[in-house]
Every structure is written in structure tokens, then in C-alpha cells.
Amino acid sequence: MWRRLIYHPEVNYALRQTLVLCLPVVVGLIFGNLQLGLILSLVPVCCNIAGLDTPHKRFFKRLIIGTSLFALSSLAVQLLLLNAVPLAAILPGMALLLGVTAEISALHARLLPASLIAAIFTLSLVGNMPIWQPMALYTLGTIWYGLFNWFWLWLWREQPLRETLSLLYRELADYCEAKYSMLTQHIDPQTALPPLLTRQQKVVDLISQCYQQLHMLSASSHQSDYKRLRRVFQVALDLQEHISVSLHQPEEVQKLVEQSHAEAVIRWNAMTVAARLRTLSDDILYHRYPGRFSMEKPLSALEKIASQHPDNPVGQFCLYHFNRIARVLRTQRPLYVRDLMADRQRRQPLWPALKNYLSLKSSALRTAARLGVMLAVASLLGAALHLPKPWWILMTIMFVTQNGYGATRVRILHRAGGTIAGLLIAAGALHFHVAEGYTLLGMLIITLASYLIIRKSYGWATIGFTITAVYTLQLLSLNGEEMIMTRLIDTLLGCMIAFGGMVWLWPQWQSGLLRQNAHDALEKDQTAIRLILSNDPQPGPLAYERMQVNQAHNALYNSLNQAMQEPGFNNRYLADMKLWVTHSQYIVEHINAMTTLAREHNMLTPDLAQRWLQSCEIAIQRCQQRLEYDAPGKAGEVNILEPPEALAHGPLSRVEQHLQRILGHLSAMLTISSVAWRQRPHHGIWLSRRLRKSD
Fold first, then answer.
1. Among candidate residues 527, 559, 563, the one with its CA nearest the CA of residue 546
2. Residue 126 per-residue DSSP state
3. Can you tell me whether residue 129 is helix, strand or coil?
4. C-beta separation of 234 from 338 below 8 A
5. What is the residue-wise DSSP string for 29-83?
6. In sequence order, which ranges of 430-483 are alpha helices (DSSP H)?
């Protein structure tokens, strides 16, 4: 029981965050300086947003950079305010200056909002203490945060990667169960595929996260620590490869189901695999060695059905892939060794990043400018309302602003609702004059409970954080009750400014990125097919390109999901794009299957492979040209490539069957593109022009 409690992801995270916040308060209480301890406990908020608790091979280097930026941001705000520089000019300037971090890497990009929050926190300290003291607080607080998290992560060195791997195995179990539990639904892809796409999206996201963690942890230089987890991850890649292969033969599936009890047998195999994967998920998370596993009986039943219906390819298909899955689960070893460090996200050096940042096309520059304008508007609004330090409005903007419109809208709703509820609860609780010791104990319990649920229920967690914030003000200045209504108004104003900024200030609509993401997905498909049909396909490069295909399609699918939540766009266009993405998913599944065949050298003759490759490349380039020339006036002027040569002569091998279906999907995607792209300019409302410009 204790093992399951201490290694549980939510409990482990909540304990770490609560201790790093509350221990400074305890130390301040012991030495008779509670206010200093409370102020010091605010610094970890900046560190959390900066991601300074992320396990990384350059952990202390990032800690030094974060400490320097926080201290310098605090110093800059104080000196500029002393020289009568308006706040509406200070914060936008800082945002534009620090925005270059987003060009370096995604992890470095988190330093921008964290440094701005450090500057905003400083506003509440200006005039109450000397200039050097806020800098010292940020320095000591960040060092304390870094050392505590380093020690905590040293105690549970493998735990972050274990948590991700555990989630990956659980998602693979859900995906396998959903794919094979109701085979007859695959007759109608419009109803069967969307739920599978969602599960496949989660699986690929977790695989990408594992790649990033392995790179950041520099697992290649810590073989003894991560050797078993690297093997577990490679097993998961094998499982994803065989679970996500294409089963797009609805007529043959229906025929086999009608002629035998294949549906029950296939479901039996799938349920057995799913149950084993869930057991392995718990074993990984709770540091247990897996027990023995065998699925001889389900496989024997499936083999009998395949032998009774030799002309039906579905039975052989399921038998082949379930055999491979069973072998991997039984031996707990991958089918082949990959270079896991090949799929890494490289960090861009400072000077090339600065050069890219100074371009008007830079998304990092647009993000920094958008954030700077929102902070400037909030500062001017605070001045108009005669607020000398509108730091709560500024903090609300920083907390609710996310990367995209959909995420920001959800965060605003959760933040506003949680703040209102928390303020109402705090207003009622402040009428009861509770002793200081009991107040601190209650704040500790509320903080722990809030961190336990923050990952799944941000709105409910915000209620707890709002209550602790009000009581922190009460302990610091004894006027928490007087500020409740002011804090409520400030929160609503900050949410309104953030929402307006995401809509009107250089928005990066996912609807406008759909075409580029579709083009990139086709490019990855072409590269993978070219490698599969090469003379000597090697397992390592094949595995790398296969994951590139999956990740590119996942980016396209994520864009589509976010675009469908954006306001004022053409629903008919998005419906057509949903169908386009469905065909793209089928191509991904066929590439997954062909990767397995290429690795086992079940391929074509060089001449035939070259002819199929030429046909696929022509079909892909036709789709790409249609994406580039979407306007009605240009479509007739551009010379679209001739259609690919028909190669379906006589019986086809398994690889040729996959290639033929890929050509069929590309033909359908070309037709959809011809209709979908032309629809866009005719049916959009006020936002469609903006979307077209951002495209």
C-alpha cells in the first residue's frame, strides 16, 4: 500500500510541490519571521512556470540561467520605475527582449513567462524593502527550489520516465481494446475511426514525450540507471507498430465474422493483450518485476480460424500481428534495437535564434509582442482605475495565457470560475478569527489537496490556490478581507484582456496551419515510402522515419481538433479536412505495416519497387500541388502532374496491397483537397479573412 501511495504520480507530485512551498514558511515561523517565509514561498511559482524542476542533463546550468533572469528582471523593474519609466513601457520591452528564448527551444521558451511573473511580483515589493532585497529573495528562493528538486529527483531518479511509460502502456491497452473489440464497426470508417484517432493521438504524444525525456536525461550516458527503461520503451514501440497497423478490409472482415466466430476470438486475443499491458503499466510505475505471461490458447483459436479460412486475409493478418505482440510481451525484449537518441530535438544556438527572432514571420516574436501588448493594456487600465500596482491583473494574464486559442479559453473559464468560488469561500472564512497556527495548518492541507488534483481539474485546484492567496495576504498585511472584491474585479479584467489578445493580436489560428501541416505530413509519408522501397532498408532508419510519419500526422490531427474549437470558421471546410485527415491516418497505418515487412525483408524486386515508388511519389506530389494552389483562379493555371501509372496487374503481394491502398487514399485526398480548399474563401465570416492571411 505504501509503495502504491508514494509512487503514485499525483501523490508524488503533490508532496514535492507542497514541501517546496511550505518548508520556507516553516523555517520563517521557527525563526520568528513568518512574513519573509511567506514571501520566499512565492518564488517557486516562477520556477514551476520556467520548468526548472524538469529532469535534465543540464539541470544546474538551467538553474543558474533561471536565477539570473529572475534577479535581473526584478532589478530592471525597480530601476526603471525609480527613473519614472511607465510600467506600460517596461513590461512590453521585457517581453520583446526575452522572447528570443522561444526560438532556442520549447523548454527555454518557458523562461519568458516566468521572468515576467518575477517582474510582476516585484511590483508588490517596490517601496516596501530595499532594491537588493527582492533580488536576494529570488536568488535564495530559486536556489532552494533547485536544490530541493534535485534531491527529490535523485531519490526517485527514474520516476518521471516511469510515469510516462506507465501511461503509454495503459493507452496502448485502451487502443488495442478499442480497435479489435467491435470489428464490424469498421465497415463505416466515419463512426469507427475518430475514437481510434483520439487514442492513437495520445499514444504518439506519449511516445514523443518519452523521446524528449530520454534526450533531456541523457540516458545514453547513464546506461546502468536507464537500461531497463530503455528496453521497456523499445518494447512499447514494437507494440505500437503492430497494434496500429491497418485493418482496412471491411468486406473481408464482415465475411469472416459471418462465416465463423472470428469476432469473439479476435476480441479474446485483444482483451488478453490489453489486460497484460495494464498489468505491465502498474509494474513499471510501482517498481515491480513482471510475472510470466502466455497467450497460447487465444493464439491457438485464432490459428485454427486462419487455417479454416485460408482465402480470407483477415485471419492471417490478425494471427501474424498478435503472434508478434505475444512474443514481445512474453520475452519483454524488443524485436530489434533502435537508436533512441536519433529522434531528438536539437537546441538552436543563440545567434541563429536571434536572427530568426528578428523576422516578422517569427511565431516567437508574435507571441512576445502579443504578451507585451496585453501587459501594456493592463498597465494602462490599472492607471485609469487609479491602481498604483495592478499586479493582480498582470498575474491573471500571465496565468491564463496559453499557446493556442482553445487552451487559453478553457484556462480562462477555469481560472475565472475557480477564483470566484475561492474568493467567496475565503470571504466567509475570514469572518471566523482562527488562530495563526490553525490557519497555516489549513493552508498546508488546502495546498496539498489542490496539487493532488491540479493536473486533472485545474478549475477546482484554482479554488484552493485562491483561498491560500487570500490568507497569505491576510497574514502579510492583515487586509485580506478588504482586497477580496478588488481581486475579483482584477481577475475578470485580466481574463478579458487575455481573451481579447488571443483573438485580435496576431493570432496563430490552427485553421490557418492546417494546410502547412498537411503538406508536412505528405512529405514525411514520401520519405518513409522511399526508404521502405529502397534497395537495403535498415531497421534503425526505418524505425526513425516511421515515428516521424506518426508524429507529423499527429501534429495535423492536433491542428484539426483545435481548429474545430476556433470561432467563426467554415464548418464545411473543417468537415472536409476531417475526412482528409482520416485518409491520412490510413496511410500512416499502411506505412506502419510496410515497415514491419521491410524489416523482415519481405519486399519487391528492385524494378517493381522503383515503379511503385514513382507512382506513390507522383500521387503525393499531386496532393501537395493541390495544397499549394488552392485558389479558384490559380487551380486552372497550374500544371498538375499526370496521374500515377496503374500497376494492378495480376495477384498482388502484401506490400503491393498496402501500396495500392495508399494510392487509393491519395486519390481520395486529392479530390477532397480540390473541393475543400476552394470552399474556404466563399463561406467564412469575419474571421475567415484573418485565417487566410495567417495561412
1. 527
2. B
3. strand
4. yes
5. HHTT-HHHHHHHTTHHHHHHHHTTTS--TTHHHHHHHHHHHHHHHHHHHHHHHHT
6. 436-453, 458-477
Grid coordinates belonging to 328: 514481445
What crossing angle do the helices spanning 223-243 and 159-181 adopt, rounded to 10°? 10
> Amino acid letter at 153?
L
Cell of 49: 512556470
- The cell numbers describing 52, all together, are 526548472
The residues facing 126 across adjacent strands are 129
Alpha carbons 313 and 643: distance in angstroms, whole number: 29
Helix axes 484-504, 363-384, angle to 10 degrees: 140
Task: Report how far residue 231's alpha carbon sits from residue 311's, in angstroms, rounded to the nearest whole number.
Answer: 38
User: Can you list the alpha helix ranges (DSSP code H) found in 182-290?
Assistant: 189-216, 223-243, 250-259, 262-285
Question: Other CB atoms closer than 10 Å to residue 13's CB: what's the count?
Answer: 18
* 3-state SS record for 351-392: HHHHHHHCCCCCHHHHHHHHHHHHHHHHHHHHHHCCCCCCHH
pLDDT 10s digits, 298-334: 899 989 988 888 888 888 888 888 999 999 999 999 8
**Contacts (Cβ under 8 Å, ≥6 apart) of 258:** none
Could you report the per-residue pLDDT of 549-603, keeping only the tens digit for each? 988 988 888 888 888 777 766 667 777 788 888 888 889 988 988 888 887 766 6
